[in-house]
Design a protein that fits this description.
single chain, alpha/beta, eight-stranded parallel β-barrel, 9 helices, 8 strands, globular
C-alpha cells in the first residue's frame, strides 16, 4: 500500500507494557502515564488508573483530556487469582466489587472500550464456567452501557501460559453472537500475539471474528523455545529474535485486516502496538523500531 496506514487506522500503544514497572510501582505509573498521553505519534492508547485517591485525582483529568481514543485495561485486577468465570459465589461477588471500581475509572477517563478476560479454565466443569462467565458478561455490558463503553473480550491461550477459559476463537465468537442479541456494546479485542499460543491461524482467526473485532493488538510471543525467559505471553516486540511474529507475519495480518474491513478509510479503528521494551533498550527505541516495522510491512500489503 502506498497510502499511509494512518489513513486506515488509529495507531496506538499500550502504556503498562512499555513501562512494566507501573504495575508494581503506582507512583511510576502516575509519572509515566502522564507523559505517555502527551505523545503526538499516536491517536489511541490502552491504560489503567492506579489505586490511591491522590494518584487518581492527578491522572484522571490528564487522561480524559488527552484527545485520544482510550481503552481501559484490566492489568491491575488479579485475573489469575480471581476468575471472572468462577463458580464460587463469593469470588464472583468480590470480582464485581473490584470491577465496578474499575468501570468508574474507565468512565472517568472517557474510555470507549474496556478490555476484559475470562479467567482460569475449569476443565472439569467447563460448561458451568461458561455459563458463569456469560452471566458476568451480561452484568458487565449492562454496567458499561450507560457510559457508552464497549466490553472488549480478549481471547487467550488455554494450555500454554494464561490458561483461560476463553479461549478458542470459535468459543469467543459464539459468546459474542449470544450476548450481542441482548447488548450492542460487546466486541473482541483480538491480540495477534496470543494466536500462536492458542494454536490459531492469523488469517482464519481474523476472518472468523469478522465484524466482532473492535480493536486489535499487534505484538509478539515466544513459543518454540520453552527455556527462553520470555516464553509464553510475555509480549516481546515484533521481530524479536525467537518470536513468532516478524515482518512476514505482520504483512499477512495487515492484509487480512484490510480484507475484512477492519482497516478502513471510512471507519478507522484502533490498531494498537503492545510490547515490552527490547531487552536493554528504552521504550522510545522500541516504539520507533516498531513503527518502522509496521510501515515496512504495510508497504508490502
Amino acid at each position: 500500500m502506498k497510502e499511509d496506514i494512518r489513513q486506515y487506522a488509529k495507531l496506538g500503544l499500550v502504556h503498562h507494557l512499555l513501562y512494566p514497572d507501573c504495575v508494581t510501582d503506582p507512583d511510576s505509573h502516575v509519572h509515566t502515564l502522564a507523559e505517555f498521553v502527551k505523545r503526538t505519534d499516536i491517536e489511541a492508547l490502552d491504560c489503567c488508573i492506579p489505586y490511591g485517591e491522590e494518584r487518581r485525582e492527578a491522572l484522571i483529568p490528564t487522561v480524559r483530556d488527552c484527545g485520544k481514543d482510550v481503552s481501559y485495561a484490566l492489568h491491575l485486577f488479579p485475573c489469575r487469582k480471581i476468575s471472572l468465570s468462577s463458580l464460587d459465589f463469593q469470588e464472583q461477588s468480590l470480582a464485581r466489587l473490584v470491577i465496578k471500581d474499575q468501570i468508574d475509572m474507565a468512565a472517568a477517563v472517557g474510555a470507549t472500550g474496556f478490555v476484559y478476560v475470562s479467567g482460569a479454565d475449569v476443565p472439569e466443569n467447563r460448561p458451568a464456567a461458561r455459563e458463569a462467565f456469560k452471566e458476568f458478561t451480561r452484568w458487565f455490558c449492562g454496567e458499561l452501557k450507560p457510559h457508552g463503553i464497549t466490553a472488549l473480550l480478549e481471547p487467550f491461550d488455554r494450555t500454554i501460559d494464561k490458561k483461560y477459559l476463553y479461549g478458542p476463537i470459535d468459543d469467543c465468537v459464539a459468546l459474542m453472537r449470544e450476548i450481542s442479541e441482548e447488548y450492542d456494546n460487546i466486541g473482541i479485542e483480538l491480540d495477534m500475539a496470543h494466536l500462536p499460543l492458542m494454536f490459531e491461524d492469523f488469517e482464519s482467526s481474523i476472518r472468523r471474528c469478522g465484524s466482532f473485532i473492535k480493536r486489535v493488538h499487534l505484538g509478539n510471543c515466544v513459543l518454540r523455545d520453552t527455556s527462553h525467559p520470555l516464553y509464553g505471553d510475555k509480549h516481546p516486540p515484533m521481530s524479536f529474535e525467537g518470536g513468532e511474529i516478524g515482518e512476514p507475519e505482520l504483512v499477512r495480518i495487515l492484509s487480512t485486516l484490510l480484507e475484512v474491513g477492519f482497516l478502513s478509510k471510512t471507519d478507522r479503528k484502533p490498531l494498537i502496538m503492545e510490547m515490552t521494551p527490547f531487552p536493554g533498550k528504552t521504550p522510545e527505541y522500541t516504539v520507533e523500531r516498531t513503527f518502522a516495522l509496521l510501515e515496512s510491512a504495510w508497504a508490502k500489503v
